[in-house]
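ok, trying the design again with the full structure, not the truncated one.
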């Protein structure tokens, strides 16, 4: 099954208020979406907060998703990007923490979504399969999925033709799929 084949039914189930579908959607999409938010916002705490707001938004508006207009991952990523941009445009309401008292009182050592993914058995399997890829494919996939770069951004960053980047990602993902079974 391809990603759209998995995500579209999950969004339909979310529209029907199926909490298990939302949990599954979160498991499948949060690492990439956290990377997108982190790339835009440049702060873990902001990215985590925006991501939480985005999943509430996805839950509330899953019924408005239309597969005719966009792929599920595109729709979800657009929500995250737009929310990040809104976050950056908001008036500056942060209080300066000159003596670090706020940080000391509210610090949380709990791992974020990316850290939890990296600690899981699945991530070890993925990491092992990633090591088996050609270096160019591995780099393209890592930049696309962990840094949230689009194909065109990736082509520009690597100074390569767009078709080459798309081929590397497609071939790399196919090899990952075969490796992961």
């Amino acid at each position: 099954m391809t990603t759209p084949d998995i995500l579209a039914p999950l969004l339909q189930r979310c529209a029907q208020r199926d909490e298990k579908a939302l949990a599954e959607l979160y498991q499948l999409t949060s690492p990439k979406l956290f990377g997108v938010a982190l790339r835009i916002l440049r702060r873990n705490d902001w990215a985590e907060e925006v991501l939480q707001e985005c999943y509430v938004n996805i839950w509330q508006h899953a019924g408005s998703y239309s597969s005719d207009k966009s792929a599920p991952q595109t729709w979800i990523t657009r929500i995250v990007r737009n929310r990040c941009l809104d976050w950056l445009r908001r008036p500056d309401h942060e209080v300066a923490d000159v003596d670090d008292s706020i940080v000391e009182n509210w610090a949380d050592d709990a791992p974020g979504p990316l850290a939890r993914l990296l600690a899981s058995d699945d991530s070890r399997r993925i990491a092992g399969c990633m090591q088996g890829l050609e270096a160019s494919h591995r780099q393209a996939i890592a930049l696309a999925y962990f840094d949230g770069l689009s194909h065109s951004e990736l082509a520009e960053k690597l100074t390569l033709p767009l078709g080459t980047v798309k081929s590397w990602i497609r071939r790399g993902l196919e090899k990952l799929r075969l490796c992961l079974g």
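Keeping the full-length input from now on. The CA atoms of residues 26 and 138 lie 24 Å apart.
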